[in-house]
Queue: 3 jobs
Job 1
Amino acid sequence: MQSAPGSPNKVRAEWCNHLTAIVTPPLEAMANGRLRKTMPRECAEGREEYCATVCHLEILGRSLAGIAPWLALNQVPENEAPAQQRLQQWSRDAITQGLDPQSPDTLQFDHTRQTIVDAAFLAHALLRAPNELFATLDAATQNRLIGALRTSRQFKPHDCNWLLFSAIIETALFRFTGDCQDEVIDYAITRHEQWYLGDGTYGDGPELHHDYYNSYVIQPMLLEILETVATRNASWAELLPKVSARAVRYAAVQERMIATDGSYPPLGRSIAYRGGAFQLLSQMALRKELPSEISPAQVRGALTAVMHLTLDAPNTFDANGWLQIGLAGHQPGLGEGYINTGSLYLCSTLFLPLGLPAEASFWAQPNQPWTSVKLWGGQDAPADHALGPDS
C-alpha cells in the first residue's frame, strides 16, 4: 500500500514537478531547433527507419495533449508560475519550429499513415488550449498548421479507433476555420455507436479488446469531438448526453481498477503509455464530471499513486531525462513495433487535472482513500452497479 500522501498543496507540487520533468526535454529541445539532434529513438529492432520518420511529431503532440490544460490555466499557484511561463513559450516555439519549412525540426505530415495518429494528438492539444496553443501563434504559423492538418486527409484511417483520429483533426479544423469534412466526423461517431458494448465500454472495432484504448483514445476524443461539433448536427447533439453518461461510468470503472499501491492490470497493447491508461479518469476530473459516488480527493489519491509507481521506478528516464520504454522502469520488451520514444509521452495525459485551479475540490479537498484502499482496508461501501442499457 502507498505511504500516506502529503497535503493537497504538496501533492499538487509533486504533480507539477513530475509533469514538467517529463515534457521539458522534448519541448525545450524543439523550441530551440534541437529535437532531431538530441531526441533518443528507442524502438523495436528493425523499426529504426520508421521511428525516425514519425517520432518527432509524435512526441510533440502527445506532450502537448497532456500539458495543454495547465498551460491554459490563468491563475496558477505562485510556485508554478515560472515553469508555466517557460513551458508556454517553449510550446509555442516548438509548434513554430515544427511548421517552419526552414527549421531543422520541421515536421512531416505527409509521409506515412501514422501521421493521422500523431496529428490527432496535436489537434486534441489545440482543442484543450485553443488560446494558448493556437491564438498566440503568428499568422504564418497558424496558416501552416491548418495546412498541415489538412494534409493528413490524404491518408485513410483503419476501421477502428483510428476513425477518431481523422475526426478530431476535422474537429480542430472546424474550431479554428469554421470548415470541416462532416462526413468524416459522422462516420467515426456512427461506427463507435455501433461498437458500443454496454456498461460504459466501446469495442475497438466490433470486438472487445482487453486493453486501455477506451482511455488512451476512444472516450476522451469522442467527448471532445461531440462537444465541439454538436451544433452542426442534431443527431450529434442528441448523442452527447449518452456519451457523457458512458464516460462517467467508465471513470468509475477506472477508479476501481487502481489497486492500493497504485498498480493496475497490465492488460493489452500499448501498456508503455504508463499513466496515460487513465486519461479518461483524469479528463472527467478536469471536467468536474466524476461519478457522484466518487470524490475528487479519492481520484487525486488514486492517480497520485499511479504517478509515483509508473514514474518513480529506477531507469524510467535515461541519463538525459527522456522517457524509456516500460511500465515501471525500463522494460523494452513491452514496446510493440509501433512504439518509440515519442509514443511514451501519452503518459502526460495523466496530469490533465493540473488544468484545475488550486482552489478546485480536486486539489483542495482533504485526502480520502480511493475505492481499493477503502475496501481492502475493511471499510464498508456501496456496491458497484452497471450502467443501464439506455445509455
Note: The domain at 8-376 is CATH 1.50.10 (Glycosyltransferase).
Job 2
Amino acid sequence: MTDLTGKVAFITGAARGQGRSHALALARAGAAVVATDCCAQIPTVPYPMSTPDDLAETVAGVEEGGGRGIGVVADVRSRDQLDDAVRQGVDAFGRIDVVIANAGVAQGFPEEETHSPGEIWDDYLAVNLTGAWNTIQATAPVLVEGGRGGSVILINSTSGLKGMSRGDARSDAYTAAKHGQLGLMKAYALELGPHGIRVNCVHPTAVATPMIENPAMKAWVEHNLPRVPSRFGDAMHAGRLQPEEISAAVLWLASDAAKHVTGVSLPVDAGFAVV
C-alpha cells in the first residue's frame, strides 16, 4: 500500500468528482489534505458547479477516514486567492509536498446560449490553463523551500492528446487549454527537476462525475457522436471510468514509487487516445 504519512497534498477542484476522490485517496494513504474549490457558478459553464457544502463534505470524508484536512474556498483564476489558500495550508500543516491541479470546467451545450464565443473562450482558458499555471506558481516556492522534492500532478484529459473540438467555443477552449497544459508540464518539469520536484500530467477519458453526467454534456455528446463516432470509443470498451480509477494513477505519481518519473503524459483512458 502507498504510504504518504507525513506528507501534505494541496488539491484544487476538490469539492466533488475527481478532486474529492483524489483527496480521499491521498488521505487514506496518510497525507494531510488542503482541499480548495471556487464553490461558485461561473456563468459560461452550462452545468451546476460545486458549492461550499460540497467542499465541506470532502473535508468531512477525509476526517471520517481518520485523516487531517482543511477546506479553503479559492478560485484558481485568482492568484491572490490561491496564495491565501497556500498560506492557510502551510499554517495548518507546516508544508506542502504534493500538488494536484485538478480544477477544470468541461464543454457542453446549454438549453439556450446567452454568452458570446469570446466570453466562453476567456473563462475556459482562465480556469483550465491559467488556473493550472496559477496553481503551480502559488505552490512551487513552498515545495522548493521545503527542500524535500515533491510531486506536481496536472489533471489533464484525453482532449490534451487528440482533437475533440467540433467548432463550438467551449470545445475549442477546452481542447486548446488541455494541450497548453502539456507545454506547462514540460516547462516546469525542467524548471523544478533540479529541486527533486516532479511534474506530470494524467489524462483521463470520460469519468463518472457531475462534470460529465449532466444534461449539457449529454446534449454535446448527442450532437457530436453521429458526426465523429470514432472519437468517442475506447480500445477496451470500458465506457466511463470511476473517479477512483484515476485516483490510483494520481496516488502512484504522488508516491516515491514514481520518484524518477517526470515530464510524462499518463493516459488513464482504456485506450481512448489510440482509437
Note: The beta strands are 8-11, 32-37, 69-73, 98-101, 150-155, 197-204, 265-268.
Job 3
Amino acid sequence: MAVAFQHEATNGDAITARHGLMSPCLIDSTNEGVCYRSDATPKTRRKNGMLPVSRRLFMSGTIATLAAAGIGSRSFAQGGPALVLGTKLELNTLDPHFFNGFPQGSSHSLIFDALLALDSELRLVPGLATAYRNIDPVTWEFDLRQNVKFHDGSDFTADDVIATLERVPKVPNSPNPFTQFTRSIQSTEKLGDHKIRFKTATPTPTLASDLARVFIISKKYVTGSTADFNNGAAGAAIGTGPYKVTDWVNGQQLVLARNDAYWGEKQPWAKVTEKVIKGDAGRIAALLSGDVDAIDEVPTIDIPRIKQDKRFNVVSGASATVQYIAMDAVRDVSPFISAKDGQPALLGNPLKDRRVRKALSLAINRQLIVDRILDGSATPASQFLPSRFDGTSTKLKVDPYDVEKAKGLLKEAGYPNGFKITLHATGDRYPKDKDIAQAVGQFWSRIGLQVAVEALPGTVFFTQATKQEYSVFMAQYGTEEASIGPRALVHTPGGVYGTANRTKFSHTDIDAAIEKAQAEMDPVKRKPLVQAAIEISMNEQAIIPVFHPNAEMASKAAIAITPRPERRFNALMMKPKA
C-alpha cells in the first residue's frame, strides 16, 4: 500500500509536499486508490490506514471581543466584523484563468474553489472534490461535493468542471497561463452530476496537485472573456468560494461580502476589503493609523519599530518562492547584449555558453543581498525551491561568490574583456526589487561587464518579458511542488511544458529528464527523477536562482495570521484571537 502524502514533518523544520512526488492515493489490491475521507477520525484512520484531512478554515470570535480589540470597529456587516487589508500588489483581473500569479491566486481563492486545495503546510485537502482515485496511470476519477451553490444560487455539478477545463486553454494573451496544469488531460467524461473521469495523454503523477491550482467557474461563463470577469459585481466572477464580489476597482480595491451559503465553515469576516497601497510608507501609515487591519510586504527596516508597539503583530513566513534571473540562451543575437564601448563586435550571443551563465551566477554575492538589502528576510538559493521542501535536491549547494573564477570562465568562453548587457527588472513588484537589480548589476561589473539596469512597472515588465524583448531579466516564481519549477521555467515551451519560460530556454537533456520524471507514477521511483531534473537544470544554469524571500506581514494585535509558503495574503489566513 503506497501512502499518498504525509502530514507529519520528517524532521525538525521539514515541510512535506508529497502530493507532487507520489501517487496521491492509498492504493489497494484492486489498484483503485482512495485518497481521503472527510469522515476519517483518529480511530478510523488507524483502522483504515488513512490520514485525516480537513480544510483549514478559521472560526470567528465574538463581535464584542473584536470591537474591543479595534477589529471591524469601522463597520459591522451581516452580523460580523469587517476586515480591511492593505496590499502592495495589484490584483489586475478577476478572471481566475488569466494570470497564474500569487497576488491573483491570493484574492481568487476567496471567490472561487478548486477541486482540491492546499493547506498552510501545502498538503492536499478536499475542495470541490471530496475524493479521487487513480484507476490506472492515465485514468483518474473524482467524486464531487454535493449541495454546493455558486454565488448566483445555481448548483455546482460536473458540467462546471468540464466547462472550466474547456476555457483554460482558450484565455488569450495570458502572461502566465494555467495550461501547464490542464493540457495533460486528453478527455473528460461525466459519470454523473457529481462524478467525473479524466483521461490523460500520458501518465501524469501530478494531476491531483495540478488541479488544486485551477479554480472552477460556472458553466454559464465558459465563453466569458477576461473583460466579462472584470466587470465587478455585475460580471462573471461568480464562484463557490467563501466570499462574493460586491465591488472591484482595478488598481484600487476589491470589496467582498461573506457567502453565508458557503459549503465550508463560516468565515469570521462579514466584509473584506483589499486596498491597493503600493507605497511602503503608505501601507505602514495606514496600519499605524488604524485605516487597515493588516498589511503585506512590510519593509524590513520598519519591522523593529512595529514590533515594539504592542498594538501590532509582525509575522514572518518562509516562502516557496524563488527570485531568479532568466537569460536569453537561445537566440544568436540578443537585443540587449553587445560589445563594450570601443571593443570589436561580438560574435554571437555569449549567454548561449554555459560557462558565461555560470560566471554570472558566481559573480553574485547572494548572502550580501540577503543581509544588507533584505535585512535577513530571505535565504540564498541553489534551486527552484528551498531545500526543506520534499523532492528538492540534497546535492545542490548555493553558488559561492567567486569573482576570480567568474572572470576565468568568461576568459575561457572567449570573453576576456566582458561585454555590454542590460538587466531588466520590476521596480514596484517585489520588496527592494530595484535595489536588488542594481546590486546584481554592480556585482557583474566587477567581472568586466558593462551593465545597465532598467527597472520597470510590473505591468510593463511582464508584458515585454513574455514577448521575449529582454536579454536578461529578474523575476520571482512561486511553486508548491518540486517538479513545477523545472516543468514551467526551463523545459522547452510546448504542450504542458515551459508555460513560464519567457526566454524560450531549451536543452534536450533537461527536457528528457523532466519528461522521464513526469512519466513515472511510482512515488518512490519518481522522487530521484525529479531531483535529477532539478540538478541538471542547475548544472546547465538554465536560470540563476538568487534567493528565497520571506513573507513579512503585520496586523493589529487582535488578529492571528497563519503565513502560507506560497506568499498569499488574504482573509483566509486571518482569524480573530480568542
Note: Confidence is low (pLDDT under 50) at residues 1-69, 72-78.
